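Attaching the record inline, Q. Sequence:
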Amino acid sequence: MYARAVKVFFSVIFTLFGLTQFPGAGSLHHPNAAQEFEICQSFHIPVRGYSMAPLIKAKDVLEVRPASCVTLIAGDLIIFRTPRSPAPVIKKLVGVIGDQLRISDDGRIYINDVLQLTPNGVVYRIRNQRRLKLLQKYQGAMPGYFVLGNMGTLDSTRILFVAEKDIIGVVVPH
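Structure, as predicted:
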């Protein structure tokens, strides 16, 4: 219904100004014209795992807004693709491109000098020495998005940075 109202609104505006096309979108009467406005509609996905518990539990159904329609900020819960998982993954976005990453020798993670915690409030620590040394090589301005879940889950301590092209959407808070 919303897409139809938007289409009618723009049809009236374009008619008033003598235009026959949406800029860059083809004819007003093109069967896919309304879809141009539906791209930012939220969708729902079910949760299958426990990596974000207690914040998000298995069988919760989340409303997700497409990533192309929002500005990503630290604190967002994002859904993304990774070659390490057949299903999309949900994690908390803790660092965006350009933020400062610092990892202490005891494995504590700091983003812009803020100590990072797991979703259940525990100080996040990298205990695997190989991963710790690898991540310490990336200290400084981050080249991608840094995500965290509970310790031991598929997050940036295992997959490094998430590329913008791999982010599907942002969970809509309720």
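The CA atoms of residues 25 and 33 lie 7 Å apart. Residues 2-16 form the longest helix (15 residues).

More tomorrow.
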